[in-house]
Amino acid sequence: MKKFLLTALMCFTFLFTGCGGGSDTNSESTNPAPVENTQTETNSPKTETVAQVEETPAVGENNQAAEPTPKPKKQVKGNLKITMLNVGQGDAFLIQTKTQNILIDTSDQDERTKLVNELDKAGVTTFDKIILTHPHADHIGGIEKLLKDKKFTVKEVYDNGIASTNKLYLNYMKELKNQKIQHVSLTAGDVLDFGDGVTFNVLYPTKDLVKAVNDGAEKTDPNNESVVGRLVYKKFSMMFTGDAERKVESEVWADNDAKNLRCNILKAGHHGSYTASTENFVQTVKPSYVLISAGEPTDKRGGNTYGHPHLEPLENYLAEGIPTENIFWTWKNGTVTIVSNGKDFSVTPEVEEDWVEQWIAEKKKSSKK
Fold first, then answer.
1. Are 191 and 202 in contact (CB under 8 A)?
2. Residue % of the chain over a pLDDT of 90
3. Are the beta carbons of 44 and 57 closer than 8 angstroms?
4. Please, is 130 exposed, middle or buried when counting C-beta atoms within 10 Å of its C-beta (0-12, 13-18, 19+)?
5. I want to staple 169 with a disulfide (CB 3.0 to 4.6 A). Which of 18, 91, 161, 164 is the partner?
6. pTM of the prediction?
7. 13: buried, middle or exposed (CB in 10 Å: 19+, 13-18, 0-12)?
């Protein structure tokens, strides 16, 4: 009997202990601690790249997909800095590497004060290279000021090599000779070294065109003799177009492989005129950003009397999938700064304004009048 009671007691104890072990196991599976850790890891800051952020849909507080947002404008640090200077109705682009300062075009002669103010803001007084795309006043108007003002130093000047009777052209050529500043003509196939691995590959004009115009065999057409070039820094690239129009765009497209025309950024040809930024050219360059240098639309002589930028190029940019917030115009966005490390790049406008859709609407409305 004692043995029976002892055996029964042992079995009862064993069963009680087993239930207790099962209870502990179940308790661990519902322990809130691991959930808290997982939540903390999810909300902690991540060092993801912009590409990773774009590929992963954002999730809101209610676990619903958040509305798409523009690409973050993170500031990139790098050896290349490109600035579209806010100089009114004209072009002036400052390119800076660790070893060189380069200026592409010098705006209009009526905008010299704006040009000097922009250069003062950038703290630049020495130019290793100045490239003048063509001899129109709104591109070479400031060169004489830079050559004659003693606070500036100009080492080399480049142009398309086509002689002109333009007074501004004759004056700067005379000044180059007086100061013994090197003058170099650029044609397709030339490559300029901007320092730190940054190059400028000239795509236009061709040697044949330059010879034909200088020999009188072909009538001069300054816009369509513009120096066109592709700036390259490792994986980053930008297309500079001067005032080149559809004729030049077609020739550049025909003479080059598409891969050699692809660029992250396009400088809109001819200040955003309908004569440039043709559909085929924009599709080939495939930019993700567009920069337009043009002044305030006005009826005053010497200003933006042309109503740049025109409707057609803007529609071509949008058709290529370029977001409206990635199209910058100096009159609306002020000075625009690009910085690249050769892989990533940032584009920072002085003024944040998404103006494209409203401008297009105004253009369409005025065209119906």
1. yes
2. 75
3. no
4. buried
5. 164
6. 0.81
7. exposed
